Amino acid sequence: MKSINAEQIFRRNILDLKPYASARSEYSADKGVFLDANENTTAVSAHNRYPDPLQTELKKRISAWKNIPVANIFIGNGSDEPIDLLIRATCNPGKDNILICPPTYGMYEVAAQINDVTVKRVLLQSDFQLNVKGILDAVDLNTKLIFLCSPNNPTGNLLRQDDVRRLLDAFTGFIIVDEAYIDFAAATSWLSVLDQYPNLVVLQTFSKAWALAGARVGMTFAAASVIAVLNKIKPPYNVSQQSQDAAVTALAKHASVKAAVENILEERSMLADRLLAFSFVSQVFPSDANFLLIEVADANLLYEFLLTRNIIIRNRSQQPLCQNCLRISIGTREENELLLAAFKNYQS
Q1: Which of 172, 126, 120, 150 is nearest to 10 (CA)?
Q2: How far is CA 42 from CA 29, 49, 205, 254, 292, in A?
């Protein structure tokens, strides 16, 4: 098994950085007379104290749930924060680059551009699978990260495991596999081989299956040395105590979350079947996520029509390989029926 060459992957200034020491990182016990953090101790609010900067209790619960050591877990403000941190930790502005495979999640590119990092693009193939040869031909000595979304947004499909393994074996930088939608897929998470690939980073989230989009709690799993760097450069209190508590509470509700996911999958199947009945729907792409990508005769016209009915979906027509494609999140049965009724009105 190959090892991580920190000197080659991480920026020199990041490796040399002395992290900010917050009051709660210097003393982490939960009992005592706390006069160290300049908080308002009169407690006029229930949230007058700073949160646990390392989300200790939440990480312990996740560790038990995923069977992953705490040292291999980073908790972020959604998944967008670790995406940004990974780019900042590895890519020298104006010099290094990342690689993405459009159509895919847009924040990889946005975060790179904010950090003045070049973005290389190797399109997915017509079946929305990876062009492995194209990716390996495109990377150079300054390519630090390859972002892969599986199940992919907006196409909804899982990437072939053999293709991802080929990249993990061949690429010397980090492969980030974004599994935001993995709870809706009949597939094993890449967490199962995390210990085999020191250059593998897996992103997951509480925003989708766990219904905590408003709390902004993302999970990153990687080698302990990588997690240590993310902890070193993150803001001291990057996840609020309310959000940490919400995630801990959610983890006690596995049965209800499983039932909700099963309901979403049933609605996804129903919606896919019924959408195909409309003459203007040319294709409903297979999905391993909580949404469907469909191809229609005129995406712009249908999108605007649905807006007049106060039904909001995503027009993905401007993305590569997605001409005249719309992305539809799976709603409740009532919401899905309203969508189908609007489609019927559009057809007539």
Answers
A1: 172
A2: 20, 10, 35, 37, 51
**Cα torsion 111, 10, 179, 123: sign:** positive
Cα(130)–Cα(96) distance, rounded to whole angstroms?
22
CB neighbours of residue 123 within 10 Å: 16
Amino acid letter, 188: T
Query: Is 6-252 a CATH 2.60.40.10 domain?
Result: no
Measured distance CA(116)–CA(214) in Å, rounded: 29
Helix (H, G, I), strand (E, B) or coil at 183: helix
> What is the rounded CA–CA span in Å between residue 109 and residue 83?
10
How many whole angstroms separate alpha carbon 212 and alpha carbon 298? Answer: 34
Q: Is 324 left (phi over 0), alpha (psi -120 to 50) or beta?
A: left
Between strands 325-329 and 314-315, the pairing is antiparallel
How many angstroms separate the CA atoms of 328 and 32, rounded? 51
Per-residue pLDDT of the chain (348 residues; tens, 9 = 90+): 567 787 889 999 999 999 888 877 777 777 788 887 888 888 777 788 899 999 999 999 999 999 999 999 999 999 999 999 999 999 999 999 999 999 999 999 999 999 999 999 999 999 999 999 999 999 999 999 999 999 999 999 999 999 999 999 999 999 999 999 999 999 999 999 999 999 999 999 999 999 999 999 999 999 999 999 999 999 999 999 999 999 999 999 999 999 999 999 999 999 999 999 999 999 999 999 999 999 999 999 999 999 999 999 999 999 999 999 999 999 999 999 999 999 999 998
CATH superfamily of 255-347: Aspartate Aminotransferase, domain 1 (3.90.1150.10)
User: Can you give the residue ranges of every domain in the chain?
Assistant: 6-252, 255-347
Burial class (CB in 10 A: 0-12, 13-18, 19+), 219: buried
pTM for this entry = 0.95
